[in-house]
Amino acid sequence: MIEVSNLIINVNEKSNIPLFGLDFIGILDRGTNLLEVKPITLCNLRCKYCFVHAGDYINNFILKEKYIISWLKYALKYKSTKDIEIHIAPYGEFFLYDEYLRLIRDLKKIPQVKVISIQTNGTLLDKKKIMDLEKVGLTRLNISFNSLDQSIAQYLSDDPNYSVEKMLNIFEMVLKSSIDLLIAPIWFFGVNDNEIIKIIQLAKEYQRKGHSGDKFRLGIQNYLIYKTGRKLRKIRQRDFGYFYKRLADLEKKYNLKLKLGPKDFNIHPAHPITPPVERDEKIKVQIVSKGRTAKEWIGRFNEKWAVKVLSKISLKVGATVHANVIKRKTDENLITAWI
C-alpha cells in the first residue's frame, strides 16, 4: 500500500490515501475560492514557535505531483467560481519538494486557477529559483521574516546559520521579478517589538522605491499558541483586540496598510467541500497508513475521504476500525476521529 524509505511516506495513486480530510497533507478547503495545497511535511528549520512542530515528525510525507493535480481537478468540480487561488502552504518547507516547478507549471495550465501563491521561510531561495519561478508563472511569494537583528532571527529560527543579509537580498530579487512579495512577520510581543518597527520601516523604503499595491505587501501576524505546536518561553498570547489596536496605531503613524483581510486578496465565499460525516458520529474506516506521530494514523472513509485517527493503541495498516468523529467543521474539509 505505502512506499516507505527512511521514514518518508510517498503518497501517490497506489497509497490509498485520499487528499481530502487531513490538515497536514492534501487539499484544504475553507469554503472560499482559495484552496490550500500541502505537498510535503519536511522542513529545513526547527523554529521555536512553529505551530505544527514541523521537523520533529517520526514519519514524513511527500505527495506525488501528478496525484495532487488529479485531486485538484476533482476538487475544482465542487467550486462554483472561475477565480481560484491555489495557496501552497505545507506543514514544512515547500522548496524541499523536488517537483515544485512542475507543480506550479501544471497549476498554471488549469483555467480556473488565476493566482498561485507559496508560503515559505525563504531560506532555500536563490537567484536561479526565483528566475525559474518567474518563468513558470508564480503569482506571489509569502515569506516569513521576523527580525532584522541577526541574533533575534537566529534565536527564533533556531538556526545559527540564518542570514538576515541573505533574506534582504532575496527580497530585492523578488521585487525585481514579476513575482509579488508578501513579507509575513509574526509579532512576538515583548521579544521582537522593535524588530516589527524596523520591518515596517523597511516596507516604507520599498514603498518609496515604487513597490506597492499587489507587488508588495506587509502582513504582520499575531503570535498564537497551539497545544500541538512549539512555544516560546515566557511569552503570552495577546488577544486580537489588542493586536489590531496596535496595528491601527502603527498604520496611522507610518501611513502604511497593515491590517490585511480576505478582500485584499480577492478571497470570497465559494461552494464548500463538505465532509460527509457529523461530529460524534461513529464511522468505519480502513487504516491505510501511519501518521506523523506514534499516536496518529490515517484512515480512509467513503473512498474519497481521509480521516486523521488518534489512538493510544497501535493500529495495523489494512485493518478496519470503528472511530468516533471528534472534529468536523462545516467550513473546513477536515475529519479527525479517535479510538
Number of helices: 7
Biggest β-sheet, characterized? 7 strands, mixed
> How much helical structure, as a percent, in the residues?
10-25%
CATH class of the largest domain, anyone?
A: Alpha Beta
Distance between the termini: 22 Å
Level-2 CATH architecture of the largest domain: Alpha-Beta Barrel
Strand content: 15-25%
The geometry reads as: globular
Number of domains: 2
Written as H for each helix and E for each strand, in order along the chain, the element string is EEEEEHEHEHEHHEEHEEHEEEEE
Describe this structure in words.
The model is unreliable at 1-5 (pLDDT under 50). This protein starts with a strand and ends with a strand. It is globular and about 60 Å long. The chain has 339 residues and is α/β, with parallel strands linked by helices. The chain has helices at residues 65-76, 100-108, 127-136, 150-157, 164-176, 193-208, 240-254; strands spanning 3-5, 8-11, 26-29, 34-38, 60-63, 84-88, 113-120, 140-144, 180-184, 186-187, 216-218, 221-222, 282-290, 296-301, 305-310, 320-328, 335-338. The protein has two domains: 31-265, Alpha-Beta Barrel (TIM Barrel), CATH 3.20.20; 282-338, Beta Barrel (OB fold (Dihydrolipoamide Acetyltransferase, E2P)). It has a seven-stranded mixed sheet, covered by helices on one side. A five-stranded mixed barrel has the order 13-14-15-17-16. The chain is built from seven helices and 17 strands. Helix 1 packs parallel to helix 2.
Question: Gist?
Answer:
With 339 residues, the chain is an alpha/beta fold. Strands 3-4-6-7-8-9-11 form a seven-stranded mixed sheet, with helices on one face. Strands 13-14-15-17-16 form a five-stranded mixed β-barrel. The longest helix has 16 residues.
